[in-house]
Q: What sequence folds into this?
């Protein structure tokens, strides 16, 4: 897809393409950029092989769209299908949305987000969901500016590492 963004600056052509084999180093760099911004860089365990295996397997369970401006990769959206029993349909869970700092305010994030919304509509999916850190005011404002409702009454749960292994051993 090639989309034009009309913002405060002159129109910028932003191309959105699906990630392809060979993009794993780029994606890992973008993941690290996001993790650094979120103050979580020490938690990144992923490597190129893990990303390539997840994204480019015969039947991948996770997908990635790359945003390009003037032929340069400047952002990404990594996502997967989820399912809502309440809605009775699949949706998309947006795991990561990140744009390199030098390319923010060009509308790249907006175009990536719009691209996923269009996929949801085209595939008759029920929801587009994600999590955002409560201190990340720019991201919160971005999502609210797109008409998103933030669900303050839900708490994200996570089981990992030793606690995950211990629970599995109890089975």
A:
């Amino acid at each position: 897809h090639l989309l034009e963004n009309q913002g405060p600056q002159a129109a910028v052509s932003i191309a959105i393409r699906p990630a392809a084999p060979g993009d794993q180093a780029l994606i890992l760099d973008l993941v690290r950029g996001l993790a650094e911004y979120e103050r979580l860089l020490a938690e990144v365990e992923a490597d190129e092989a893990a990303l390539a295996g997840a994204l480019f397997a015969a039947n991948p369970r996770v997908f990635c769209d790359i945003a390009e401006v003037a032929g340069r990769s400047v952002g990404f959206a990594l996502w997967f299908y989820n399912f809502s029993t309440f809605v009775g349909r699949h949706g998309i869970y947006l795991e990561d949305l990140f744009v390199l700092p030098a390319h923010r305010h060009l509308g790249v994030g907006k175009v990536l987000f719009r691209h996923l919304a269009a996929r949801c509509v085209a595939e008759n999916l029920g929801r587009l969901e994600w999590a955002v850190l409560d201190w990340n005011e720019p991201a919160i404002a971005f999502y609210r500016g797109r008409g998103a409702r933030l669900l303050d009454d839900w708490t994200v749960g996570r089981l990992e590492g030793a606690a995950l292994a211990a629970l599995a051993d109890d089975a």
